[in-house]
Amino acid sequence: MKDHANLHDLCRLRSTLDAFAVRRWRKSGGRERVGGELRRLLGKLKRFAAQGDYTAFHKADQEFHRAMVAVAGLEPLLRSWEIVTADLDEWILRVKQSYWPNLMALYREHELLLAAWRSEDDWVAEQATHQHVEAGWYRLRMAKGQRAEDLDPVQRAVLFIATHFNSHLNVAWVARHVSFVSASHLARLFRSRLGISPLRHLKQVRLERAAQLLRSSADAVVTIARRVGYRNSSHFVRDFRRKFGVTPLNCRRRGKA
């Protein structure tokens, strides 16, 4: 078995290759091309997760990521990805078996990842890729009681929210599977460090991004509400007015004035 330093470097290399592939096909207008095939593979992941079949899930997981890299249309990239993935294969399966007692949680991470890949924001897509691929490494370190700046519960939650704010996020799920603490403990840490709850922080991120989009795009208010994670446009308008003192439409008019 490789030592931990080499494993971490391989994880970083793998996440770099995945993120490069994402960047390449997004620049070529490939967001829609990845949709159908990856949704089909996501269905396989869900089925194997529900069955608790780690081996089948692992194989489908590799198929899911390989399909994404292949869309980039760069053969040397795909070959490099396959070499690194093969070198990590045994370790990745072992980490899944040891540190993901609930495969449905890992399936949910893939759901969020696909949503990020198909989002409007390039930074969101690439950062979500790094977070996802390196998640196993962080879980291993937490299980071994290792502490480091990049394992800080608040920082990890803040970064995850920054990349997945447009998805349906459950704070308890983020606390457990991203920050590796209980929901109540994460709430205490947020209030101590940021002065607000995790849910309030999520809402602020969504509304601030919405304000940017209102000034920079011609999309309808209901479209922008969906893009930032609101399923109910009237709730979006209410929250926006509370935060900024104006309606979304008035915010847009002021931005053009």
Q: How would you describe this structure to a colleague?
A:
This protein has 257 residues and is mainly alpha-helical. The protein has two domains: 4-151, GntR ligand-binding domain-like (Four Helix Bundle (Hemerythrin (Met), subunit A)), CATH 1.20.120.530; 199-256, Orthogonal Bundle (Arc Repressor Mutant, subunit A), CATH 1.10.10.60. Helix content is 77%, strand content 0%. It is built from 14 helices and no strands. The longest helix has 25 residues, at 75-99. The termini are far apart. The model has no long low-confidence stretch (mean pLDDT 89).
Strand content: under 5%
Determine and state the CATH class of the largest domain: Mainly Alpha
| Count of domains | 2
From the 3D structure, determine the CATH topology of the largest domain: Four Helix Bundle (Hemerythrin (Met), subunit A)
Order of helices and strands: HHHHHHHHHHHHHH
Low-confidence stretches: none
The beta-strand count equals 0
Helical amount among residues, as a percent range?
over 70%
The CA-CA distance between the termini, in Å, is 63 Å
Principal-axis shape equals globular
Main sheet makeup = none
Helix tally? 14
CATH architectural label of the largest domain: Up-down Bundle
Write the CATH homologous superfamily of the largest domain.
GntR ligand-binding domain-like
CA-atom Rg in angstroms: 19 Å
Mean pLDDT: 89
- Indicate the structural class: mainly alpha
